[in-house]
Amino acid sequence: MQHLCPVHQTRSRPPTDRQRAGESVDRHAHSGARLTERDASPTTDATGDNAGRSTLSGVHAPSIAVIVVVRNALEPLQATLDSVFALDHPRVRLIVIDGASTDGTQAYLESIKTQLHFTISEPDRGIYDAMNKGWHAAPADSFVLYMGAGDLIRSLPSPDELAGAAKQGISVLLGRCMVGEMSFQSRWTREMYLRNVAHHQAMMVRKTLHPTAPFDVGYRVYGDWEFNLRLFKAGARAQYIESFQTFADPDGVSARHGLREITRVARRHGGPVIGLLSLGLNWASSLRRRWRLRHDD
User: Fold this and answer.
1) Rounded alpha-carbon distances, angstroms, from residue 97 to 20, 66, 67, 91, 131
2) Helices (H) and strands (E) in the chain — how many of each?
3) Residue 266: exposed, middle, or buried by beta-carbon count in 10 A (0-12, 13-18, 19+)?
């Protein structure tokens, strides 16, 4: 079974207009948010050092905007952020979007705000609304990586690898994600039309590819797959990097296999036949997962 991009909140939202790849630049971050001066220029940090450049070639290395969306999941959030801090990666810019948590998350974020590029705690219209806020806050030249509370980053591409990808015009970086005990390598193939084969926990998208907020908030679970399909159809270039390794919570929302929404996404981008094929494939995956869960018990 291909596990489809777990996210860690279940909240409804009204539909919005579809955001398309290649739209004009939106230079305004979400209003009312607290932003620290961690990215003063595209080539140097606010400290004025050379952490913004590739250590070997001297070529500019884009930053990595790690965006964590959370609501009332303090302990899993702390585990996720600790995994990021432990890397001590010079190009990471950490962004946390909190949906007005009441479990101490806001106080925790306040206590570490100097370590964050951006954080905000306020009500939102659902997962993809929160993810769009994070996208707005990411540095303009960054590769954007979404993690859920409880997900962990094991390793990230080096500044040289980031610089090399940018120089080659690569807009999507793919890695490997452990989903529980299953190892999943994100792929950028036509299989994308049938199911999401690029985990958001093992996928980074260059913000310059789609400067405006990318997610259609009319989706509850599979808005990231829908965005991936738009990028794939637009011809976005992808590269697998072995040093990009993460861990994803196997019990995310998409583990429930919302077949109606899966079919909706597949029909939207592939037509009725692809929609039916996707429905059958994901229904079979859902049955296999239920069988394994029963036998594991």
Assistant:
1) 23, 11, 7, 20, 8
2) 7, 10
3) buried
What is the percent of the chain with per-residue pLDDT over 70, rounded to a whole number? 74
The three state secondary structure string of 225-270 is: HHHHHHHHHCCCCEEEEEEEEEEECCCCHHHHCCHHHHHHHHHHHH
User: Closest by alpha carbon to 145, among 64, 207, 208, 83?
Assistant: 64
Does a structural domain hold residue 125? yes
The total domain count for the chain is: 2
Give the tens place of pLDDT for each residue, 242-274.
999 999 987 655 555 588 999 999 999 999 999
272: left (phi over 0), alpha (psi -120 to 50) or beta: alpha
* Residue span of the structural domain in which 279 resides: 257-297
User: 292 and 172, same structural domain?
Assistant: no
3-class DSSP assignment, residue 89: coil
Are residue 128 and residue 164 in the same domain, yes or no? yes
Q: What is the DSSP letter of 175?
A: E
Look up residue 149 and give its DSSP letter: T
